[in-house]
């Protein structure tokens, strides 16, 4: 691995021999991945860092079950509109940036009156813990679950392996046989 920096920094840096970059035009949409009308394009799923990045695509009238975030979330609305059931007067529209602190809980809603899909770029730290209308646990969606969801959706849609960024890989600093 090489570094392509113009100078050697006086600090330790990670070696990087290529720029990790994707174009969403090249990433297939995982259709109906979390239920009818809830689609996504995976960008990053790094279980070790506990972070995911995704383009979420939501049909008009979609309601995502109430969920608790175990980490912070950043959201940037690209198209359409949406709101949280708990904050109906704070509608997110194209250009809206939203920060959700860790341990926030809410219900994602897309107005039925929308004439197009709503598209939001999310960076999610930790996971989402989903609950039903009675407050009973449904599921957890974190980076490792997200990786498996990508495989399952790709297979169901007859797609080849989907390109996204996976993050690091845990391993021993010294191979066990070399100790």
UniProtKB/TrEMBL annotation:
One Pfam family cited in the UniProt record for this chain: Cupin_7
Organism annotation: Variovorax ginsengisoli
Keyword terms: Dioxygenase, Oxidoreductase
Name of the protein in its database record: 2,4'-dihydroxyacetophenone dioxygenase family protein
Domain ChrR-like cupin: 34-125
GO molecular function annotations of the record: dioxygenase activity
InterPro entries listed in its UniProt record: ChrR-like_cupin_dom, RmlC-like_jellyroll, RmlC_Cupin_sf
């Amino acid at each position: 691995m090489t570094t392509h920096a113009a100078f050697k920094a006086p600090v330790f840096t990670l070696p990087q021999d290529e720029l990790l970059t994707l174009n969403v035009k090249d990433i297939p949409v995982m259709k109906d991945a979390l239920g009818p009308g809830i689609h996504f394009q995976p960008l990053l799923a790094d279980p070790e860092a506990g972070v995911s990045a995704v383009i979420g695509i939501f049909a008009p009238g979609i309601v995502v079950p109430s969920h608790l975030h175990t980490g912070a979330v950043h959201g940037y609305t690209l198209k359409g509109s949406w709101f949280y059931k708990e904050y109906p007067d704070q509608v997110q529209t194209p250009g809206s940036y939203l920060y959700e602190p860790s341990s926030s809980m809410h219900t994602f809603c897309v107005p039925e009156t929308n004439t197009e899909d709503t598209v939001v770029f999310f960076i999610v730290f930790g996971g989402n813990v989903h609950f039903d209308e009675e407050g009973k646990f449904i599921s957890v969606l974190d980076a490792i679950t997200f990786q498996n969801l990508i495989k399952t959706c790709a297979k169901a849609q007859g797609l080849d392996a989907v390109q996204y960024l996976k993050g690091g890989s845990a391993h021993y600093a010294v191979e066990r046989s070399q100790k």
